Fold ABC3 transporter permease protein domain-containing protein.
Amino acid sequence: MNLLENIREGLRSIAGNRLRTILTSLIIAIGITSLVGILTAIDGIQSSVNSSFAGLGANTFSIVARQDAFRRGGRIQRQDAPIDYFDAISFKRRFPYGATIAVSSVVTGAAQAKFGSKKTNPNVQLIGVDDVFLSVKGYTLQSGRNLTQNELQFARNVAIIGSELAGTLFEKKVNPLNQLIRVSGAQYKIVGVLEKKGGFSGGGDDRLILIPLDNARALAGTRKLSFDITASVPTVADQDEAVGEARGTMRLVRQDPLGQPDSFDIERADELAKETANITGYLRIGGFGIGFITLLGAAIALLNIMLVSVTERTREIGIRKSLGATPKRIREQFLIEAIVICILGGLGGIILGLGIGNLIATLVSQGKGGFVVPWLWMGLGIVVCVTVGLFAGIYPAVRASKLDPIEALRYE
């Protein structure tokens, strides 16, 4: 009995026990689905995050004030003073490096917009912006236009709204452009609607209203606003030098004493992307561990089923050995059966894991990012299937090969 005949016999045996084969393959498929599905979902989420950062641009950095108390040298430090309007404007005027600088301020993160009888939930961000805010932050217009210099200079009541707000207030029945909405007690004319951004931000970028910066200051009244500064340098290679210049300029603007720490933070887009990549790396390790534990349970179940198969086919093994089958050929037959069952289950698990993983990633990222095909994890799944087949099949195969042919023939 050569190897080819052994393979054929193993396949015939599998085909002759279809229900057992299906149930056993299903056990393996569930294990592979958990492994490939988790890792695919993590890759899909990472792809979504990368798309979000690509929209922002890797050559941008932001200057913000720390709003929480923090510990330094064993002592609790007070939070930084907010970056006020004059700090932001002074920095924009004095920054010597060639960069596009956007100044913005969040008036409120819990505004409610109204149009006729329609109104949104009170979770809308109302933000005062300048004319370069859209380009620096990576927003694109679906329709309409950007704020003009005249509107910014005279603090006109005009606004650009996010796509989610447009859908909620106008329901695709009315063109939002030139319509009047009411927010925070003031009436604004819509001049632009943003493209859907979605992504890892949880949809917050689609629930915002952008108004002229000076209009936002007037709307805030006596309440003191904190301003954010975002700079976009020409290329990524210029960023290190630009960040150094920005730190020096901002210290002069804020009058930070020599030897004292900065009274602000500089957040680089590429650092945020690297930090996110590190986090997803840990998630991959955790996901692989969970998938491995599931597969270990599947391997034990397969081992048990193969042992039962050896017991049921004891008489068959005795006949084969009496006809000249060597222990090596008996071992090969049972190993082949175990590996084929694992591969069948593995292919089904890979297909399921691919679909479920992408579905989870799509739900988490709210449709941002494309369909991910993780060839590495799919290849790993096949390797793991063969390994599980060897692990679960080798002991039953050795046990079968050691059966005494005379005792086996007597087995009922």
Q: What stands out?
A: The longest strand covers residues 100-111. The chain is about 55% helix and 15% strand. The radius of gyration is 32 Å.
